[in-house]
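Thread: quick sanity check before group meeting

JM: Hey all, I'm pulling together slides for Thursday and realized we never actually wrote out the predicted structure for the chain we discussed last week. Dropping the sequence here so it's in one place. If anyone has concerns about the input, flag it before I start.
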Amino acid sequence: MTEWILKPNIILAKLSKDLETQLKPLTSTTTTVGGRLYNKKTADKIFDSNGIVINMFYEDNKQHNIPHIHINNKQGEQCVVSLDGNFIEGNVGGRAEKIISDFVVSNKETLQNMWQDAVQGKNIKPHKQNLF
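JM (edit): ok, ran it. Output follows.
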């Protein structure tokens, strides 16, 4: 008990270091989209071009209740887009929105097949070869 009274700064520093050590793996395996925290290990990157990254998350049918993809651009803007091309949440700007819309329209059937597998926790990587 004396240690707590005599050395509070040392104990606080130790607690901070312990907390930092525990949180580091969490922050390196998570991402925030639309203010919500997602586990990166549950996502597959399905498109990465022109500074736009599109991910599909596994078992992600609870938040938006419709098939969708998550988009990040190089400016750090994020959005969620339904598989029919409607922007559900967020904004990534005009040029990026055109690229995303074209991608969704061109790949609608493949994206729907990927979604069906993703919400069941199945591997979606085999579908990636069908994307263009």
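AS: nice. The first helix runs from residue 2 to 6. Residues 39-130 form one domain.
JM: adding both to the slides.
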